[in-house]
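We store sequence with structure; for instance:
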Amino acid sequence: MEKTIVTLSGKDTVGIIAKVCTFFAENGINILDISQTTGDGRIDMMMVVDTSGFKGRFKDLVDGLDRVGEDVGCTIKAQHEAIFDMMHRI
């Protein structure tokens, strides 16, 4: 299993989660965990996904999520789980 942490932040609008989930489904990416907070017209979401079924390079994943983010008006970032863990270690 190849875990990747995906974060999304921006203005909350109809269809954001659907578009992100559609991108994942079309690219063989399984969502393992999701947490989200919404309020004051904003959405912040963190997902743990399994990218072992993704056929492209990690850069292709990042670029694809950038395009989805542009479509929905949000910032979407992806990091390998190990890098995310190192950055958030106290």
Summary: Strands lie at 3-11, 30-39, 42-50, 74-80.
